[in-house]
Amino acid sequence: MSINSAMLAGASGMRANSSALAAISDNIANVNTVGYKRLRNDFTAALSSQNKTTTYSAGGVLSVHSPLMAEQGAATASSVPTHMAISGQGFFIVRGRSDDATARDPYYYTRAGQFTADSDGYLKNTAGFFVQGWSVNAEGQVTANPTDLNALEPVRVSGIAGGAEATSRLTLSANLQSSQTVSAAAATYNAATNNMASGAVTPDFQVPIQIYDSQGGLHTLNMSFLKQGPNAWYTEVHLPAGEVVAGGGLVNGQLATGVARFTPFGQLDTAASTLPANLTISQNGVGTGPQWAPTLGIATQVIQLDMGGPSAPGGLTNYDSASVLGTSQINGTPFGSLASVDVDDDGYVTAIFTNGLSRRIYQIPVATFGNVDGLVPESGGIYRLGPGAGALSMKGAGVSGTGDIKSRALESSTVDLAEEFSNLIMTQRAYSASSKIITTADEMLDELIRLKR
């Protein structure tokens, strides 16, 4: 009977609008939820088969809701360095367990990037899901297969060993007084037998410079100068004799010997000078030149020696002014422990140490899908692969259409309260109108029953 179908249509309208109200309520409740994608309600007519020659039978309505996955929430600043937002397409890859995950623990995808370190140093968001990344090798490169989920690891930002950096470059700016009197020792000077490194000859000028070895240890390297004659100075570069084993004709801790010659304009004549461009201290037992003492266990170290030249400002000069050190600059650092971590726009997680060194430790990939609307939402702001999601693709941030990763930022919910309140009013009106269908149909049925009386 048409009246019965009308009553059922009114009930379906109330049911559909109840479902719509639930979706709107979820949207409003998640207005401040990081990475939340608002739900959209769509109503579909549920027509029944009709007999065109007789009466019409109402079919009612169905309510279907789906998250608007393609919408981008605004990025808001955060003071936490491990908070991340994706600007553009893609998702973070997460799991519900960290280092104890097994093959049975599934991978999920999320836009909720409020990752902070737990008690073991693993980055997880407020829903308890651990972000996954590719490990970075010693050369700062990622060698994992980008299509293999099993190549991912939970990102851990504690327990990272500190590091030291050996000195590999020395830059000297100093002046040797051109009017310096040639001492009597210059007549008997011999770099191999009667030298400045041994203390047998007193240098006219000496510059001590602190350098770091491969273990972060500190050593005092001396550059000693003895005037040979006009515009020429004997030069020795040496370390304390107990730290270096002699080799290659060098003795008493010498690393290099030669003559520094200058132009008539007081600038270093690199072509005429006999000093090497690099100082090499080999690991003990390696090579034929100077070696670190066996008790130190230090790796081979090559130090580039930069003392200027005719076309370079500063450097080593020979003017008629007092011999003086201008500046000496070296690189290298002592041992440093982990101070903080940071994330760049390419998704690299970088460990920063107290000595100023930094090292990439992970790269966080961005997952994309052929059809993001095919992902299935689950509790905790995560999504799992659905049959209509298409193929999974993992790439570095900003590569081939994937979004950029913004550190110290979070993606806001896509909920618009003004729109939700408007939908709330319309849903309430539609629910009330559907209820009127039922009351009206009830009155008509009551009138029909009265015909018998």
Which spans of ≥5 residues are poorly predicted at pLDDT below 50? Answer: none
**Quantity of strands, as a count:** 32
N- to C-terminal separation? 21 Å
Rg value:
38 Å
Largest sheet: 9 strands, antiparallel
Q: Note the overall shape.
A: rod-shaped
Mean pLDDT: 90
Question: With helices defined by DSSP (H or I, 4 residues minimum), what is the helix count?
Answer: 3
Brief synopsis:
With 453 residues, the protein is α+β, with helices and mostly antiparallel strands. It is 15% helix and 34% strand. Helix 1 packs antiparallel against helix 3.
Jot down its keywords.
rod-shaped; alpha+beta; 3 helices; 9-stranded antiparallel β-sheet; 5-stranded mixed β-sheet; 32 strands; 453 residues
Describe the structure in your own words.
The protein is α+β, with helices and mostly antiparallel strands and 453 residues long. The protein is 15% helix and 34% strand. It contains three helices and 32 strands. The strands form ten sheets. Strands 5, 6, 9, 10, 24, 25, 26, 28 and 29 form a nine-stranded antiparallel beta sheet that branches. Strands 12, 18, 20, 21 and 22 form a five-stranded mixed beta sheet that branches. The chain has a four-stranded antiparallel beta sheet with strand order 13-14-15-17, with no helix packed on it. Strand 13 and strand 14 form a beta hairpin. Helix 1 packs antiparallel against helix 3.
